[in-house]
């Protein structure tokens, strides 16, 4: 049977055909959308973590728990200090770099315009650990720390919002009422999966944050980059800090686990999407099976004529198997198209990196072809069971 008469038959029964492919379309849509969104979120996490982020350990004071898919600090102790960072660097052989940090909350403004930007006190090692560089100017250096300089490196959105230009190096930004000279602008990073804008940040020397702004001697955390095995480095850091503090008033964890605050939500979403996809594929398979079986009885004359003019049972079997697969593929194309569109829209509005769910689309499409073929086996066998002279006897 040629493609033209087949399409003509589909057009004559388009409502029935449409209903038969809806299940497959929903299954493909759910699976592709799930894999697309999780892939896009994973891309966003990796971008937020930086090139080496997946291998970084973070030490934070107090306890952290995962509650409802979010990582929440449930206790804080002002016991993590700069000497701890130095000790980790000097006494842990599995550690190559450490980068202590302190988050402060001054007013950030320039020219009468205020921003809700996050301000971090950092050391030069932060740039090496995260792998993120500056788009223009330079990052913080050792002289900035030693001389407690009032210098700042700002995010791209801070530059755009306050100065209306991409590289305001040499200009001044005010933290409270203290002037900080801008020495660099970070490259664009976007938002992480929790929605935090990583380009709306100001980085200043750690010493300036601790002495000039917060006036405290404790840290908010220490990033640790292992030189080899991550698990071994984690054990060494934990053992060292237990000896220094005498009690476990800190948390040592993979940075990926702490930063990935929506990990549990992603897993739940993935499981629900798979369940929906399985149900939809099942409904789609039954729909195609029912429609194709019905079409066999409606097309007995056609089958009889084809057999009378030399078509073999194998030809009839292939015809109905092909039609069944074609129905499933039609549904799959609609499902993939809408899923890719949804993933792109969600990624755009969430500020995630561009991600095309090719793998999800290919897997979903392959499953739909398989389901189409399996659903067509019984109708195809049924179509070959009729003898031409019996079918054409009453015509």
Automatic annotation (TrEMBL):
Which family would the database say this protein is a member of? Belongs to the ABC-4 integral membrane protein family.
Q: Name one GO cellular component term.
A: plasma membrane
- What are the top taxonomic ranks of the organism? Bacteria, Pseudomonadati, Aquificota, Aquificia, Desulfurobacteriales
Q: Where is the ABC3 transporter permease C-terminal domain?
A: 275-388
Q: Does the keyword tRNA processing apply?
A: no
Q: Where in the cell is it found?
A: Cell membrane
What Pfam families does the record tag this protein with?
A: FtsX (PF02687), MacB_PCD (PF12704)
By what name is this protein known?
A: Putative ABC transport system permease protein
> TM segments?
272-297, 325-349, 361-381
- The source's domain of life comes to Bacteria
Q: Which organism is it from?
A: Phorcysia thermohydrogeniphila
- Key words, A-Z: Cell membrane, Membrane, Transmembrane, Transmembrane helix
A GO molecular function annotation here is: transmembrane transporter activity
Query: What coarse category fits the chief subcellular location reported for this protein?
Result: membrane
Instruction: State if Zinc-finger is listed as a keyword.
Output: no
Give the bilayer topology. Multi-pass membrane protein
